[in-house]
Amino acid sequence: LQKFQFDCIGENLTDNEKGIAGSLKEFGLMLEEVATDWSSTIERSELQLIKPLEDFRKEHIHGYRNAKKSFDKASERYYKQLEHTLGLSHKKKGQHLQESDNELHAHKKIFHKEALNYVYKLQEVQERKKFEFVEHLLMFMQVYFNFFHQSHETANDCKDYMKDLQMRLVSTREQYEGAREKTKTLMRKMSDHPEAAEDSAGSGMRWFTSKWTKYFCMYTKENKLFQMLTPYHQPTSAISLNQSTSSSFVEPMIVKTCTRRVTDSIDKRFCFDLEVESGKRSLLTFQAVSDLDRRKWMSVMDGREPEYIPTKFKLDENGFRVIEKVIAEIERRGVEHEGIYRLVGVLSKVDFLLQQAVNPATCDSVDFSNESEWEINTLTSALKSAFRNLPEPILTFELHRDFINAAKPKSAFIPSAFLVEETENLNHQEAPSEPTVPNSQSTEEDESTSPGKTPTSPGKTPTTPSFLWGANDGPTSRPRSSAVVKSRGSRSPTEEVTPTVARTLFSCAGEHPEELSFQPGMLIREVERTEEPGWLRGMLNGKVGLVPENYIEFI
Fold first, then answer.
1. Which end of the chain offers a freer environment for a tag, N or C, measured as fewer CB atoms within 10 Å?
2. Can you tell me whether residue 224 is helix, strand or coil?
């Protein structure tokens, strides 16, 4: 007893706690004086001392262990659901994300309840043992001193001390009763309003790149101090395998700025960036547990929204040099990549590449040939973004037909049948850049709907007006094409088409006000030939306009 010490919660002990802790040493000194008689009566201590302490152990200490087991199970379920929810991409369906968030909220409530109960049981055992353990010892001393006639004088000398100790025990019990009621009231308030938070500080679980390590973070608004602590939690998945089971402390940092992370710039949800000052400035990315939690963090740290400032691009000397380098690099790597322009690169990397390229101070340091740093989709997206952000468009719709006509061969036009044949040949080849069906159709439509060319519909071979081969010439170099170009319902361009009725075979969207838009199966009346080969004029729903000849059949 003289060497026994109480483990206390907190830094400083009150006078009553010091007196209660020191009482055990006094009791040890008293017992030394009656050691001879004590050995003969120790067997009778079962009912006066051992049994009450055993009841205290079974009732309170075992209750604390059960509360700890419940807390560990609730903690396991909550962190498992938390990792699952934060691992979901923002591209998932809204309903799926909402269900996951609701399930996380339910586990969070259970986790908070079990955590509070665990702390309460721990505090209860620590407080009760201060007076109950000593009370049993005191009763033991009082009972046995009645039988110790030899130690009667010793007992009289201890009366004053024992009275003072009794008063301390009563005072400690009263303080415990009052603190217990306040604790229960505070627990109810925290359970009823878990979202309440102070304006001057914030705390909670956060995920931190680049390995997405889990931290318990605290922030104090007065001094802008940000602290991170690895929580006590056994790793349950691959995302936490790099964490130690014991808590580790990270050096506190001073927050300079807080900015919400752009959604498209990262695959994770609820992210925000912190610019901190720890020896040198650095940018850290954190993930909150929910959108509401992120708004609270940004509110307490005076966070701001990201600035959407597109990179201005000009076709000056530096701009032309950048365009030439990007195109040369794309051609060097080859255009056989699938979806080379359809698949977009990461927005943040594209913006960073353009910012470095257009800046005269850093343009020479950009290495476009570094495939590990600049993927092919990043280069193609940068090329598209450069043309998109020009002050004036490089190609207006007004000059569209002029550019098309200027690109046509002067001697003869490329037959649409040749394109169909080449498309069929490509379909039998195994190439990385093999066009998909929609891309093939769009290619044929571009060729078929160009001014001065016979329109070619998907799934239907083109007609053979005279301008395909010339006025008198036939297909001398490709005899196979003469059989291909003969299509169902085609007519010689020299035939006169009398006003009649035709049925549409395919859908068509007019690119100009003079062209008609229609769906398959619609009737076009008063159809007649126009001066432009491959185009007819008809009436649909009271509107007169141009119709591609290969998109209809006469009835």
1. C
2. coil
